[in-house]
Amino acid sequence: MMINRSGGRACREITPEAAAALVKSGDWLDYGATFNQPDAFDRALAARKDALYDVSIRNCLSMRPRATLEADPERRHFAFYNWHFSGYDRKKHDAGLCHYIPCHLGEIPDYYRRFIERVDIAILKAAPMDAEGYFNLGPVSIWHPAVVERATTLILEITPDMPPVVGTHVRVHRDQVDYLIQGDDTPMPELPNAEASEVDRAVARLIATEIEDGACLQVGIGGMPNAVTTLLLESNVKDLGVHTEMLNDGLIELYRAGRVSGGRKATDQGLVTYSFCLGSRASYDTLRHNDDFLCRPVDDTNMPDIIARNDRVVAINNTTQLDLQGQAASESDGHRHISGTGGQSQFVRGAYASKGGKSFICLASTYERHGSRRSRIVLDLTPGNIVTTPRSDQMFVVTEYGMVNLKGRSVPERARAIIGLAHPDYREELAREARARRIVPAHFL
User: Fold this and answer.
1) Fold of 12-182
2) Which of 98, 271, 318, 372 could form a disulfide with 92 if both were Cys (CB 3.0 to 4.6 A apart)?
3) Which residues are catalytic?
């Protein structure tokens, strides 16, 4: 399906420099997300920074440095606003050059259609035009259809390495495009898979025992969720479905191994449903023209009511800190923003509402900072920390020391169960603090 946009556009090919010359001071630009973010245009825009001021750019999960950010270290010309941080974006936020936009990722298309007032120019990477006159935006749909609809001017940066994929809204006809620029032959960025630690594997073993034949998987980013897919490859679980926001290497390996059929899904039966892919070159090649996969906008993958249409949804996501009430802080370290809400809370709710569904929030019990070990399970969240998953939504919580289901448990019962998931070195202190704050009865041991 093509993206709807008023027709009759010129679709003229121009140079990146000519495209950058279209930008005026005060404009709002949209760079899309991940490897749809432009490079040739970005470099050309950075080169004319001294002629511009107050240019605002929305982007998400930068996979390589942004020339406009690097050229403007004092933020005199460009302001970046980001829907979800990569490691690069986090560093720029620490330097005061990038700001987060609070969101549920699945709601962002609606933000563009209802609340965001201006998209003066959208610049997205795309594969070369096919014989029918369509450009393919590759395995990144997310909110791009809404951006294309709203953009006053649409520029596509043509990238030979972009793999054309099958999707509901990944194709844009030339009549919907204002300008084309030629990108370079830089390979698509890959997301390396960190080696799973023993803690990751211990958590994964607990979660894997809860996954049944026919389960429908959503897996978040990180070592622990990836460790789960590795264990499933070693198990006898079969006939799995996939309905996920992010498609990673682990899920694609399950597909290649014949464990994913999608036959028991109610939505997109027989297909792997995703909104964007980040992983290895092998994964991108697997998606190329592969009609076993369906790339959908994020409001089709992340809204809880859509997730819940499938039975036995299993949602597996990370957090970085958990308090004794069950609140999970997954996106910040105090007032320092590190990632984003993403789709975590939407999949937590969607999985719970699914018939036979299960949501897992996983974390290592401790972490190291400045040579000192600290507990991720705490009485109170770090001041300024953002709650990503509220206590009322929390279902299964997993560390290397066990797994508990918090649904239906009182505050004292929750605290007892969560303390049991902490590293043994911290349990006594946590129990003492819980008694002092009357979270648990005085006789609690």
Assistant:
1) Glutaconate Coenzyme A-transferase (3.40.1080)
2) 98
3) 245
